[in-house]
Amino acid sequence: MLTRRSVLLASAAVASVPMLARLGVRPAAAQTPANVLVFAKQIDDIISLDPHEAFEYTASEIAGNVYQKLVTTPNSDPASLQGELAEKWEVSSDNKTFTFTLRQGPKFASGKPVTAEDVAFSLSRAVILNKSPAFIINQFGFTRDNVAERIRATDPRTVVLRTAEPTAASFLLYCLSAAVGSVVEKATVMSHVQGDDLGNAWLKQNSAGSGPYAVRQWKASESVMLDANPNADHQPKVKRIIMRHIADPSAQLLGLQRGDVDIARNLVADQVKQVEKDPKFSVQYARKASLMYLSLNQKHPILSKPEVRQAIKLALDYDAIQKNIVPTTYAVHQAFLPAGLPGALTEHPFSKNTAEAKALLAKAGHADGFEVALDYFSGAPTSDIAQAIQANLAEIGIRLQMLPGEQRAVITKTRARQHDIAMVRWGSDYFDPHSNAEAFSINLDNSENAKNRTIAWRASWEIPELSQKTLAALKETDSEKRSAMYVDIQKEHQQVSPFVIMLQEIEVAVSRAAVKGFDMGPMNDRHSYTNITKA
Amino acid sequence: MSDTATSPAAAPPPGGPSGQPAGGRNRPSALRLRFQAVSGTLASIPITLFGLVLVTFFIGRVVPIDPVLAIVGDRAPQDVVEAARLQLGLDQPLYVQFWRYLGQIVTGDLGRSVMTSNPVTDDIIRFFPATFELATLALIIAMLLGIPLGVLAATRQGSWVDQAVRLFCLAGHSLPVFVLGLISLLLFYAHWGVLPGPGRQSIFYEGMVDTRTGILTLDALLAGDWGAFQDALLHLAQPAGVLAMFSLAYIARMTRAFMLNELKSEYVTTARAKGLSRGTIVWGHAFRNTAVPLVTVLAMTYAGLLEGAVLTETIFSWPGLGQYLTVSLLNADMNAVLGATLVVGLIYVVLNLLSDLLYRLLDPRVK
Fold first, then answer.
1. What does the pLDDT look like over A450-508, one tens digit per residue?
2. Does the beta-carbon distance from A27 to B319 stay under 8 Å?
3. Is residue A205 classed exposed, middle or buried when 0-12, 13-18 and 19+ CB atoms within 10 A define those classes?
4. How far from each other are the two terminal CA atoms of chain B, in whole angstroms?
5. How confident is the model at residue A44, as a pLDDT?
6. Which of B22, B78, B86, B255 has the fewest CB atoms within 10 Å, counting from its CB?
7. How far apart are CA A427 and CA A436, in angstroms?
8. Where this protein primarily resides, as one coarse class (chain A) (predicted)?
């Protein structure tokens, strides 16, 4: 009783440090245990850990470490496809039937081997559940009704997929390498079914995978704990991963400096700069498949003039914006396929040229400039970037009316096509050029009731020809030719589109110097923990 | 606390409303009046909550964020978006939507949060204990320090002690909580290393204590894990201390004002003339009379703490109601916002009611 009261009093008197010491109450050891790796990360985006439902950054990353897919891409050469669960695959001559042969060896955390039945069940499950990421698989013509006959296990090691249309193998394989292609253990999942949820309620917070780790516990907005899967074919070096939700970047940095955190994931540009030169830490960068761009609404009579669009592209000082505002967290990028994705175009045709931009405006009949509204997210660093854009455009006479807002409010506005200019971010949904190509360069129906409301539709940009070109690239079965077609499309797109693509996001991870081997990829589900070591 | 609260309310007026018993003319009518006052307050609860739901609901619907966006995401095909819109009933007129929502909450169903995809009730049950734990400890600290400080300042009005307390209160009240939080982290965690960093527990204890109440300190005690209890308490120290600092300033300032008022009264002069000791005068007489207004101050401070402190929760990575409410709001997750607002509203109403009841216990004149 007495001790309890004194402990209570002790915490009441937080200011009196010596008192705490006298009581012998000590905070936990400053170094993390040797077989546990601690991430500090904003993890409140996790809604579900079910790989056939999760579509958020953190949950995709976890899925990538807990589950295996038929195929994957190594981060050392992201364009090349490798079998993960599949040993080999064959494509029929009509490009509609894909036959996968499974490797022998991969085992679920339960100890049971991964069978073709599990693979067929998992892919069908994604289609039947029809949650947010399901469209990645559904675009091959799978539906709740036909999936039983189109995705089949023909023997314990063979899975056959039949697509509705002739399909480029690379397109299908890249899509299957997304987190939604994760293979779950049928028996375990089915033993937790509630109603017709296919085990969704259970798999939201648990796991049944064959990846190097298994989910031990998830506390929303608090922590995720993963333990090594004892039966995995690639044993991870660190036995336990703990991801702690530390919302504030300064607190993440403090944790890193104290040694309570091994890798901090959300440091901001200033803090990265601060630790970059410190030998106690190592900084790691990975180009992320996420772009920041301006969408110029083509409903606006002035913005729809080609000269005006071009003038805006030439007015911005991309390099200065990148260097001064986001030196470590963004890179200049000007095409719709981000660096790291197959078919990416990394040329920068635009740089600040005020004279030419002014001349173009004059040619369009706006020598005195005009006024137009800019919608953007009011947080950092977008608000600083917006101000730089305002200053750049003012130099050629375009007066921006600044409309800062919440992220979702800005998106809502662009989806309703009510913006003039909007600064928005776009992350690729899956590791195939089509993800972004469809968004930025397909708009077959520009009416208000269109079914497919792509980014191009949201800018009210009517492009019957470019859309067809983009669809042709999708159908090209020769992967080299296909990549080349995307490069061509981007070169045209860069010049004619109403999108001013400015920056590509860079993901930064700062670790203690002794921590090595965190493998980061262009998509979140490619961040691998398997080879992390702590000296 | 709930025992003292319910007993006057539950006590039936002797003899019922119509029959006046013969003996003791004053007593029964006083009780009856008290009962009426309490039942009057109780009756006002639904009206207050209705108003709250009404205002929150309509504010939520005029926010320029499409709620469907939070459910199906930015990438869903148009037919999925439309289906979600229909499912939410967003195609209906506002009053129909409101009527539906009311019908739902009357049956105790707060709906499902689109962001966490859990029933809102489950979310609140998960997030509220963290806030409750933090707020309660913060209030205890603020009370234990704030009241003595206030009394001390009042009894030495104008002296350096008084000036110091006033300066302290001014600083505590005007320093932004996030500055205080970061300074605290820098000193106690990063520099001296005497207190643990953000979060509710150390990695070592992660997953070792079963969740029963959600109040980590209590769960650790129930599990008999002394180490986990100490760890949880130490993690509480900084956020609770920072929150307490803010409340403490207010409590001390109000206590000082109330005490000054009392110490100027004639009964204090009389007591002094009769030769009562200083301690008896200050604590036995003057302080007892400040109890009534002080209860209101404490109740409202507590309510303010219980609605969750977004900034403190963010800095110390405390998964509480404040963060939940803010994130829900930014995502136009209206079920979650309405649910959490209702809970906050309920807290205010209940604490108001409790302080009303406490008045009646503390001050025999309130009838």
1. 888 899 999 999 999 999 999 999 999 888 899 999 999 999 999 999 999 999 999 99
2. no
3. middle
4. 20
5. 83
6. B22
7. 8
8. periplasm
**Domains detected in chain A:** 4-44+215-285+509-534 (3.40.190.10), 65-190 (3.90.76.10), 287-506 (3.10.105.10)
**Model confidence pLDDT, tens digit, residues B254-301:** 999 999 999 988 998 898 888 888 888 888 888 988 888 899 899 989
For residue A101, what are its two tokens?
A: 């042969």
Q: Considering CB atoms only, which of B73, B182, B203 is closest to A132?
A: B73
Q: What percent of chain A has pLDDT over 70?
A: 94
Query: How many cross-chain Cβ pairs, A to B, lie less than 8 Å apart?
Result: 164
Q: Which of A250, A163, A477, A30 is nearest to B185 (CA)?
A: A250
Better-scored residue on pLDDT, A114 or B34: A114
Q: How far apart are CA A232 and CA A235, in angstroms?
A: 6
Q: Please judge whether B199 and A25 are an interchain contact, meaning their C-beta atoms are less than 8 angstroms apart.
A: no
Cβ(A52)–Cβ(A37) below 8 Å: no
Q: B204 and A246: CB-CB below 8 Å?
A: no
When scoring A14, A45, A290, A457 by the number of chain B Cβ atoms within 10 A, the one with the most, hence best to mutate, is A14
pTM confidence score:
0.83
pLDDT score of A10 more than 70: no
Report chain B residues whose CB lies below 8 A from the CB of A415: 66, 69, 74
CB B79 within 8 A of CB A451: yes
DSSP SS3 for A87:
strand
pLDDT of residue A1: 30
From the number of C-beta atoms within 10 Å of its C-beta (0-12, 13-18, 19+), residue B178 rates as middle
Residue of A nearest to B242 (CA): A14
- The answer to ipTM > 0.85 is no
Q: What pLDDT score was predicted for residue A207?
A: 96
Per-residue pLDDT for B336 more than 80? Answer: yes
DSSP H helical ranges for A163-293 = 169-176, 186-190, 200-203, 249-258, 269-276
The pLDDT of residue A99: 97
Q: What whole-number distance in Å separates Cα of residue A507 and Cα of residue A486?
A: 25
Residue A516 CA to residue A238 CA, distance in Å, equals 11
